[in-house]
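Loading example: each entry is read as two labelled lines plus one structure line.
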Amino acid sequence: MQSFGYKKAGSLDEAARTGADGIKFLGGGTTLIDLMKLEVERPKALVDITALPLAAIEKQKDGGVKIGATVRNSDLAHNDYIKKNYAVLSQALLAGASAQLRNKATTAGNLLQRTRCTYFRDPSRACNKRVPKSGCGAIGGHNRNLAILGTSNDCIATNPSDMNVAMMALGARVHVLGEKGERFINIDEFYLLPGNTPEKETVLQPGDLITAVSLPALPAGTVTSYLKLRDRASYEFALASSAVVASIQGGKLTRLRFAMGGIGTKPWRNPEAEKVLLNGGTIQDAVAFFLKDAKPQSENGFKVELAKRCLTHSLKNALKA
Amino acid sequence: MSEENSKVSRRSFLRHAGVAGAGVAALPLISNAQNAPPISESEKPYVPDGAQDVRLNINGKNYDLKIEPRVTLLDCLRENLNLTGTKKGCDHGQCGACTIHVNGKRVNSCLSLAIAHQGDAITTIEGLGTTQKPHPMQKAFMEHDAYQCGYCTSGQIMSATALLKEPCGKAAGDVREAMSGNICRCGAYKNILEAIQDVRGV
């Protein structure tokens, strides 16, 4: 690991002012320190934000919830209000990583979790995400775990997070403290497609500090669920996963959001596919629409069928169809 | 601090300034842009100049160390404090051999920076029990022969003792899931599970 400076931020204001290009905020460190050891990440300094008052889970007056940036994944997953009202989030968190990693990993850190693509993690290999314009070893290489949706000629890396898939289905809002003060980013606009700049994964600017994630109140009669398919039963990244948040009132589907993980370059949602069901269409049609642009690579063609079955199963369960 | 030390600091700072200066130099620019007061010296991220004073509380005892920010808690325990009961397996948070407790919760010490854990109560396998008076989990591991080579064992035991205080169902499957972050290459899982269920009274 390269040398770096370290500072434990004493206040939110201090953290926000010290944020800059080349400086990383340290939360749980489960992605960051791992990648620093591999010299994929080489920050000049770390600003530790774990002492800041960002570790609360606050129920909002409207029934929604505000989750602090440094709330640990395990605390969030086991929180009673989350388990009761946002079961999909608790399930997604518990489907990810291990108990000891979940005790470290934070909410904001998970939002920014980096891909597990082996070419990204190995500095001796070509990777446009790690070193812009250096090429992509994964295209035509080992890509079994990589994306079938949202890929470009420069990058096919998958977003590895389970939590992000649930956040996408729940319609989360990311609270950011930046140069011009506080702003809110809808999770639908938070992640970027790789295009020809795969090194840029989110709309965050250098120095931006995520302070919280908030979830909207869900109407009565909302069913949520997370399904994760992987090579082994535990402690493995998703090959395909799906999060569904469906509201049924008076026997009628009134609100629906769903997203998939393990198959996209970002947590994947397609509002048009949701409209198919909201307009009275079939699950089969909605799933087909969701996956219509799937572009398999040399080793991951199986993901098209796996994703189809994963989403179909989740939607059938949620809609009791 | 002695005068000599402070001289070394300044020299080292100059030597490193070319490398580290870029990140720090950017800070005042951002402050100006938002009309915030300038960053004071004490607020600036530390620029590496070798070791820093770090106080850690491990197994109820305070240790004063001089270590670099990049030293992980795992390396600090093993290399600086000779507490070698905590093992280094993958060093990337994948195997669980380095599991310790921070404020009563199990974490991977390989992905933790020692400097970030000042003020925390750290417990390692050495703090769990003694040869004369082992922790019930240590005793159960011995009674159930829950190891072969023993390399993953301290991590397994640290995870297993933390699990006792976590929300975990009674079924064997619940324990397997809760213990999935600890890999045993010898495959002693069956006996590890029995040892844990024995202590839980299941």
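DSSP finds six helices and five strands in chain B.
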